[in-house]
Specification:
Shape: elongated
Number of helices: 6
Strand content: 25-35%
Order of helices and strands: EHEEHEEEHHEEEHEEH
């Protein structure tokens, strides 16, 4: 395979975990973080984003990019072996892969390389079936408009990947940005585009702030917010 597998795994901590002794919580977080840090060197990219305090259904997520499908299962098994995993739920998990876009001149799958922006907006995307019945020139015209609008927002970087046949959605859309409000303005502008008429589903939407894994885990029990006296 020339392309990459791209996965997003979301985690939510059981509130009862916060009632464990602080030493037990710290050991569990250390073990989980060590696995993530070890695997970060094995994949094309492994980045952590916190959504603590923003969404009630998850606390943080991992953005995983690799050329080996097996890496995803092996990383998941390693994380399941940590004490913290017994207190974590996975309310959402998405899988996609890269391929060359039919609307550009690209002939090879694009390589997903994070830009390092502070925020990542992620959501699954499904088009209505009539879109695929349109003549190719009509779809190209609609997508040309769509891409032109996107290029007007220079601080937003698109990392769209494809899920046909390997997950429940058709696309996974991910956008790095400097400020979440900037992405809101982009989406508001795109609502007026021709291509938007053919959207069936583009939720749930997650706005994650990039942090190191240990910072994301410390937010689970408020360690980062405590002031030592």
């Amino acid at each position: 395979m020339e392309g990459q597998y791209v996965a997003y795994t979301f985690y939510r901590a059981d509130p009862a975990w916060r009632r464990l002794p602080v030493e037990e919580r710290a050991a569990g977080k250390d073990a989980f973080a060590e696995v993530v840090e070890d695997w970060a060197a094995r994949m094309d990219s492994l980045r952590t984003y916190t959504v603590t305090g923003v969404r009630p259904d998850c606390d943080f997520f991992l953005w995983k990019i690799t050329r080996r499908y097996e890496d995803l299962g092996e990383l998941g098994a390693a994380l399941n072996g940590t004490p913290l995993a017994g207190w974590l739920e996975t309310p959402y998990s998405y899988l996609a892969t890269t391929k060359a876009s039919e609307y550009t001149k690209a002939r090879r799958p694009r390589q997903i390389t994070p830009k390092g922006s502070p925020y990542l907006v992620v959501y699954p995307f499904v088009k209505v079936r009539p879109w695929y019945s349109l003549p190719p020139e009509e779809r190209q015209r609609a997508m040309d408009e769509h891409m032109r609008i996107g290029h007007e927002f220079a601080t937003i970087h698109n990392h769209t990947t494809y899920s046909f046949g390997i997950d429940d959605q058709e696309f996974m859309t991910a956008f790095e940005c400097d400020e979440p409000a900037d992405f809101m303005h982009l989406m508001l502008t795109l609502r007026e585009s021709e291509a938007s008429r053919y959207t069936e589903r583009d939720t749930p939407i997650f706005v994650g702030q990039h942090v190191e894994i240990r910072e994301a885990l410390d937010a689970l029990d408020g360690s980062t917010a405590r002031v030592e006296l």
